[in-house]
Amino acid sequence: MQNGDLKNDFILTKPLLTIASGNPKKVAEIEAMLGPLPLTIQRQPRDLEVEETGSTYLENALLKAKAAAKITKTWVIADDSGLEVDVLNCAPGIYSARFAKTNKEKLSKILQALGDSPYRSARFHSVMTLCDPEGHPIKHAEGICWGEMLKAPAYQGGEFESLFWVKEAQCTYGELTQEQLSKLGSRGKAARAIAPSLLKAFQLD
């Protein structure tokens, strides 16, 4: 069998990639962003819980990726993301998910912190990491989506995404389509940046 035949067989079997997240929405989002790649995507085991004790997005992403790789023995992608508001010294940052107990409380807390300040520039910041089946970090990439904070949510029932205005799309982050998320979103930018390393890892380049 020729090398080309081996590569074709490899593509047909679709190598397995684990997304280190128990959040079905996030897994579906990342899967859609990696959609053009010939991979089979699965989310981490349901009983896997990883405490995010890192002091940076990368440290938290690595904690999740290494834990998932240890259990699944597969290649793993993990990410950590947060909202950074300039006038709040980049808070809530890595504490975005733990900023308050409920989405409603998160919105109220950050709007109160912003008050009537005219300086409302912000960004969503994501760091994505790729680990091999032994849990060794292979590559990490980051993505940033720039925008500004509105004075009230654009819709009900949302989180920070309902307050974050993306000028390029003329809508809030939470209203972006999947295509726009892949192009403009922080996680989408990180996924595109890490895609070449995925292709190389699976010998698809």
Entry keywords:
alpha+beta; 6 helices; eight-stranded mixed beta sheet; 205 residues; 24% strand; single chain
Can I get a quick summary?
This protein is of the alpha+beta class.
Q: Helix and strand succession?
A: HEHEHEEHEEEEHH
Radius of gyration: 18 Å
Query: Strand share of the residues?
Result: 15-25%
Tally of helical segments = 6
Low-confidence stretches: none
The largest pleated sheet is described as: 8 strands, mixed
Structural class: alpha+beta
Helix content, binned percent: 25-40%
Mean pLDDT: 92
Span from first to last CA?
20 Å
What is the 3D shape? globular
What is the number of E strands? 8
Provide the fold topology.
Blueprint: H1 3-13, E1 16-19, H2 24-33, E2 40-43, H3 57-72, E3 75-85, E4 91-92, H4 103-114, E5 121-131, E6 137-149, E7 164-166, E8 171-172, H5 178-184, H6 186-201
Parallel strand pairs: 1-2, 1-3
Antiparallel strand pairs: 3-4, 3-5, 5-6, 6-7, 7-8
Helix pairs in contact: 5-6
Task: Write a structural description.
The two termini are 20 Å apart. The protein contains six helices and eight strands. The mean pLDDT is 92. Helix 5 packs across helix 6. Strands 1, 2, 3, 4, 5, 6, 7 and 8 form an eight-stranded mixed β-sheet that branches. The protein is an alpha+beta fold and 205 residues long.
